[in-house]
Amino acid sequence: MTGRNFVWSLRYPGEDGLLHTQDDVMARRDLHVPAYAQVRVKLMSDDLLYTLEIAEFEQNEIAVPDMEFFLEFQTGGPGQFDYRGDQFCGYAHPDLSGTVYVDTEQALETWLKQMREGEE
What we know:
Helix content is 10%, strand content 47%. The chain has 120 residues and is mainly beta. The two termini are 18 Å apart.
């Protein structure tokens, strides 16, 4: 997840399973993760200082330009959980908050396929 212009941008590995290759899937704001999995999310920023809190998984971390920070958590069954993001300017930017979707394997694959095909 990368904070940029007051919104989170997300990058998922494409069909090759590798990040930063031509088939990566790009998304904005909402985070999709597999159910019953150990998840590691890298936080970065391209411009400002941001924070990200996922209360359900007791995670709270910062994103700083030119640095990498990580959220690590174990998911349970499928569900939807709010996350809150912030930028240190005192104004609430709605696109910095969103939803963590804990998806079944099939639901996650369906979502990734839709994203690859340009659907939302």
